[in-house]
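Structure (tokenized):
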């Protein structure tokens, strides 16, 4: 849980481990064959993000965009920031809107505390809160 101003929000950190050089990527067994996978599916249906509001830092490309799409698909209203990818950010907003979701893209560098605060404020202004 983090505080910026008087707003509380949870930070999600995604760490991707990439293979180096010419090494083959690390392969993991499919989730479908992992014990307890069906229980995870059922639990995710019970814990829908319908009506929740999320803010993703760096959400216009790559892993960030995948997180934005997943949150929107699960029913969340999603605000996300970008630094220099205005085109892809706007395309992602349009994609989510066409699918019936709500999204907001904002230019903000996560290294700039004032820009992050403004992103939080704009998210709350657009969606009424931040979960």
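Design, position by position:
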């Amino acid at each position: 849980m983090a505080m910026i101003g008087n707003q509380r929000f949870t930070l999600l950190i995604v760490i991707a481990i990439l293979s180096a050089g010419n090494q083959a990527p690390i392969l993991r067994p499919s989730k479908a064959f992992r014990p307890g996978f069906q229980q995870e599916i059922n639990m995710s249906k019970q814990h829908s993000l319908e009506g929740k509001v999320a803010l993703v830092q760096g959400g216009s490309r790559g892993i960030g965009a995948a997180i934005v799409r997943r949150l929107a698909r699960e029913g969340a209203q999603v605000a996300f920031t970008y630094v220099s990818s205005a085109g892809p950010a706007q395309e992602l907003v349009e994609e989510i809107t066409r699918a019936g979701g709500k999204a907001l893209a904002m230019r903000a560098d996560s290294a700039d505390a004032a820009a992050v605060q403004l992103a939080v404020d704009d998210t709350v202004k657009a969606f009424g809160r931040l979960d």
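Reviewer-requested clarification: Residues 88-131 form one domain. Helices lie at 37-46, 62-73, 86-98, 113-127.
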